[in-house]
Amino acid sequence: MHDSTRRAFRPRFALTPVALVACALLQGHAVLAQEQSPLQLRPSPMLRDDIPGDVARELPVFVEGEHIQGRPDLETVIEGGAQLRRGDTLIRADRLEYWQPDDLARARGNVHLNRAGNVFEGPLLELKVESFEGFFSQPNYRFLRNDAYGEADRVDFIDEKRAIIRNATYTTCQRRPGPGWMPDWILRAASIRIDNEEETGQASGALLSFMGVPILPIPALSFPLTDKRKSGVLPPTIGLDSLNGLELTVPYYWNIAPNRDATLYPTLMTKRGVDLGGEFRYLERSYAGQVRANLMPGDRLRDRDRWGFSAQHDGALFAGSPVGGIGLNLNLNRVSDDNYWRDFSRTTASLTQRLLTNEGALSWSRGDLSVLARALKWQVLQDVDAPILPPYDRMPQVAARYLRGNLAGGLEASVEADYTRFEADRRLTRQPNAHRSYTLAQVSRPWQAPGWFVTPRLQLHATNYQFDAPLATGQESASRVVPTASLDSGLLFERDASFFGRSFRQTLEPRAFYVYTPFREQNHLPNYDSALNDFNFASIYTENEFGGHDRISETHLLTLGASTRLLDPDTGAEAARFGVAQRLRFEDQRVTLPGGAPVSERLSDILFGATINWTPRWSVDSTVQYNPKTGRSIRSTIGGRYSPGNYRVVSAAYRLQRGLSEQLDIGWQWPLNDLWGDKGLDLGPGRGEGEGRWYSVGRLNLSLKDRRLVDTIVGLEYDAGCWLGRIVFERLQSSTNTSNKRILFQLEFVGFTRLGTNALQRLRENIPRYQFLREQVSAPSRFSNYD
Q: How far apart (Å, rounded) are the C-alpha atoms in residues 352 and 381?
């Protein structure tokens, strides 16, 4: 018989009666399907990546080969293209022996083992199939999760999750043709212990080589097989800083529990000394937070001890209880001295580096009623060359709010009450501290329909002050009651339209907002928390032109505006939005902030706004405040983004505040290979665009008014396939005439570890829509490497 004919009729057997019954049932279903209707594929829950233990024990063993002999329920011998399959385990060999009582398989000659996508190949295998205990002699292996591979003298399988690889190599560099090829990086170890349950590898007697040069001899090394957290010493980070000198950090990570961890990161700074840092994080069902602290004993540059501390906590107590929920929120930030923000600008988590918040708040809510009690104290880091006026501490503040809708006649009502003690250094503020209490009551009646809305509203704002010292007028207390009436209204029109060959649903939405607040003398009152609202499309339709409660603007004006939107008729996605608004003032506004001038202009500046998302590649957003008298824009913000695909994004923003600042902000991530026509491969997010490619990354913040760079981060990334290299230059402005410069190096061995400074985190924080060149989006399935 011809060899191909013999292979076509090779025998295949299942060694359990259950499988024979299943085959008969499948044959019966096939006959019925032919008689009734065409066979259709349907999703089956039986195909799954992980097979539960109780199911695995019931699975049959299938064998296949050119010659099969043996005794029922004892032993089976398969020769010539032998195969044994059970669940997610497949064994192929020239000769295969299987003893059913012991569930033991012995394979010889060109042995191929595939266990859930992990592949081993070699000359000899002995394995208990169900428990996955045994050994493999002189195997080559490849792991599914990170596509790593290597070779060893022997692999001992402890169970289905654990194995020990003896005298092993490990790399993720893909083999290329040629007898002299060597991987760019390779780990050699006396033994590697693989634990797929913990998703970690442990190597002993390890040596990491890069480009043939040994770079990291380590007696014992633990590394992740996936992104799962694990305890241990993290790779050291090295940086070069213009203020601190050479920085070396050796972090230790402690995975305390699935919802708690801690990191210790001692750092040696050659110009300063040793900085001892640590961070603790926790996440529970009803609360979460983190604590971070740094201590540098004897800073050689400042000749003093330096320390920093921050803690954040957000949580709820008695959530869902009949008495209502209680929330506890903490945000604490303290440092040792005024120069801390300048010397350690990257260690503070505060958004305002010179104003550090220390706040604790306790809140309670039940139904329509909510109560808040908090204490707020600022730490102000002063600079002799650029002093700042400290904000007021609130020690304490108690506020309550009651909101009720669906009242009789469709009315909606709310009452807000607040008591605050304001404290600050009077030598700096030049006004007395005070106790302030206010009550804001309002009632409204919204009418809404598909094409229009009208909302009249009445407000009453009552405020009382008790001062620690008399005002210039001799007052030790003051009171103020201010009523406000407003009417908000709008229309909505729609039509089908077509622009540039594309169909849209276009809207036209005119809006009119009228407000009247009579004059009440307030300019003699101190200012504790009020500021002029930003002039934008959100604030132009509000009753009070000031934020806070120390100034209630005397207002008699009408705001007119209109917007139009272009909507995709199928998805409802907004392709474009254009808007315009202007205020018409009927009376002068005499209420001002300290040092401010009354407003007498009858027509305000005009607001223009546009947002365009015509295609997913392009996005433009702009707002312009235009003065028709001078014919110039007072404030302008124009931003745009172009992103034609993965790892290609350019964003730019121009910000102008006439007479104060003019800035240009540019960020990008782009393959440099595009310059010489190499467009790369579309491998999807988290996989790069192929080997041998350079990427440019950066963000520049330029002050056009001062004609200089403010903050800068510029870098290069190189993707070699199995390793990535990064070099980043960072410059942060610390004062008007000084800046902190830093060089960051990082070498990433894909699927293994990273060495150097954490440049990735700096790139992700600073470059809008930055993408990692290697990031596992989803875990690979065993069916992607199925035999």
A: 10
Please report which helix (H) or strand (E) contains residue 23, including its range.
helix 17-36
Q: What pLDDT score was predicted for residue 463?
A: 96
Closest CA to 493 of 481, 503, 507: 507
**DSSP 8-class letter at 339:** T
What are the boundaries of each domain within the chain?
1-40+47-137, 143-230, 239-382, 389-614, 631-787
Cβ-contact 452, 489 below 8 angstroms:
yes
How far is it, in rounded angstroms, from Cα 606 to Cα 188?
69
d(CA 216, CA 236) in angstroms, rounded, equals: 11
Angle at 644 between CA 643 and CA 646, to 5 degrees: 80
CA distances from 21 to 18, 26, 27, 65, 479 (A): 5, 9, 10, 22, 91
b/e for 144-169, b at 16 or more Cβ within 10 A? bbbebbbebebbebeebeebbbeebb
pLDDT tens, residue by residue, 536-547: 998 999 999 999
Residues of the chain where predicted confidence (pLDDT) is lower than 50: 1-13, 16-37
**Residue 483 · residue 513 · CB < 8 Å:** no
The per-residue DSSP string of 264-313 comes to: E--EEETTTEEEEEEEEEEE-SSEEEEEEEEEEEEETTTTEEEEEEEEEE
Give CA–CA dist 743/245, Å, rounded.
11
CA dist., res. 448 & res. 430, Å (int):
49
Q: Which helix (H) or strand (E) holds 28?
A: helix 17-36
Detail the DSSP E strand segments found in 59-199.
Answer: 62-64, 67-71, 75-86, 89-99, 104-115, 118-128, 133-137, 140-142, 149-151, 154-157, 162-170, 185-195
Structure-token match 């001078």, residue found: 630
Complete DSSP assignment for 372-407: EEEEEEEEE---TTS--PPPPEEEEEEEEEEEE-S-
How far is 459 from 482, CA to CA, in rounded Å? Answer: 8
Pull the structure tokens for residue 736.
């008007």
pLDDT of residue 45: 55
> What are the DSSP E strand ranges found in 492-571?
493-499, 502-517, 531-532, 546-547, 555-567
Question: How many Å apart are CA 72 and CA 785, to the nearest integer?
Answer: 33
Q: Which residues contact 71 (CB under 8 A, 6 or more apart)?
A: none
On whether the CB atoms of residues 682 and 646 are closer than 8 A, the answer is yes
Task: State the Cα torsion 686-687-691-697 to the nearest 10°.
Answer: -20
Exposure pattern of 692-704 as b/e (b: 16+ CB <10 Å)?
ebbbebbbbbbee
How far apart, in whole angstroms, are the C-alpha atoms of residue 668 and residue 766? 10
Q: Which residue has the tokens 């919802």?
A: 259
The answer to whether residues 536 and 514 touch, using CB atoms and an 8 Å cutoff, is no
Give me the CATH code for the 1-40+47-137 domain, please: 2.60.450
Q: How far apart are the first and last CA of the chain?
A: 28
